[in-house]
Amino acid sequence: MSPVTAGVLQMLALIAALALAYRPLGDHMARVYSSEKHYRPEKWIYKVIGANPSAEMRWPAYLRAVLAFSAVSVLFLYLMQRMQGSLPGSLGFSSIDPDQAFNTAASFVANTNWQSYYGEQAMGHVVQTGGLAVQNFVSAAVGMAVAVALVRGFSRSRTGELGNFWSDLVRGTVRILLPISVIGAIVLVACGAIQNFAGIHEVGQFMGGTQQWNGGAVASQEVIKELGTNGGGYFNANSAHPFENPSPFSNLFEVFLILVIPFAMTRTFGRMVGNLRQGYAILATMGVIWIGFTALMMWTEFAHHGPAFEVSGGAMEGKETRYGIAASSIFSVATTLTSTGAVNSFHSSYTGLGGGIQLLGMQLGEIAPGGVGSGLYGMLIMAIIAVFIAGLMVGRTPEYLGKKISTREIKLAACYILITPALVLCFTAAAMALPTPGNSMTNSGAHGFSEILYAYTSGANNNGSAFAGLNADTQWFNSTIGIAMLLGRFLPMVFVLALAGSLAEQKPVPETAGTLRTDKPLYAGLLVGTILIITGLTYFPALALGPLAEGLAS
Prior knowledge:
The protein is mostly helical. Helices cover 64% and strands 3% of the residues.
């Protein structure tokens, strides 16, 4: 069997698994966020935190709850890292430096999981499990809560109430993320991922000396790292490490975990707004972009010209021989089209055009299918932009799901799509203009520029994957990328929740003969074109200086 055929079969198996999970998981999440019942463990949590889960919140109160919870989480994780040397289970590791502790705390709370450190050489068991793994759960649940609040904005009318953040946070964690993670961790352990609290031990001889590794609760952290589209690895090699990702089957299973909730949330959306076809239109848009990007990535990596590439059957540099080009390409596209950041290969070693596909996937806003929650609300923002463009074409006030898209709504949507490009391009320009940050680049020219552009694209889009080749463990990069991650996560949420509140206050608009049908293939095509054109116009000059220049020169 040829590698290309194997890659196609893996894609078909992945699509089949996602299709089987789509309906039951999507319906389950709709029931979770629509239920008025509170389970006993959830009531205990509400009592501890002093929250009333039945109290409805308007968008300012919902936003304050999101920001307050996230601010406390950043502080808690920062202090835990700074005190690591005094904590039990530290494996002898010292406390984390202030700039790196800030960067890591911001990263995991923002669902980015950018890591400028070697996990196996810096973090002990308490910080890994009690700090980082906990944030993997709750940061994902925060994104899902914000997405559900926006969906309620479409489904409700003549009220500004969007639900209760604390209820959405707890339910998302307890009823969705935790049960799937338990099952997924068992599967990974069966595949060979480790799960223990062992200390540092020797595992054999290496280049005439001994090689040492820590143990750890890796399988349980690995599953939520992928399921919550987080991406932070227990080890520096991330999902290329055999303790995290032992086999080709575990590799495909991890890709499934990355994609299953973001895709299934489109059915949750359709169910909650009372029109499943609207969810299918969003699903089709996400699916077309994801399959298209995966096909392009496989083509660039298999067909790259040159004698060395022809002998190896494609661009194998930086890729695990356990997975090969096809599985590495599938994993790479899945991580960069979502806010996951996990890697099973070195993205810097991909071809010039392959690196451009990775960058563009993040620059789309990670909406195909995107992160848990963030992918759905990002796609719905683009859906509003698309109906606005369609309204301009026919001279009609745009409508979406029975809600008018007026000046207020389009301004909020425009602010949303402008924040991340401004962060990425401004920080990249500053890093290239100043003399010191450039010293962190391993490569010069177009590839070196791509390293800087990728770092800020990954941070501001809350992806977290690294291009490699860039020494990001400096005060400049730890501080600026940390700021980019926080602003890139929480500023867009301000506009999402404000938009949700504005929509919820409207009364439904009756559908007429002139209403744009947003559940048809024509609209899905318009939405795909809108996404690609807006991103292309925004980032094309930067991409032309980096991956496009490198790809055309090779």
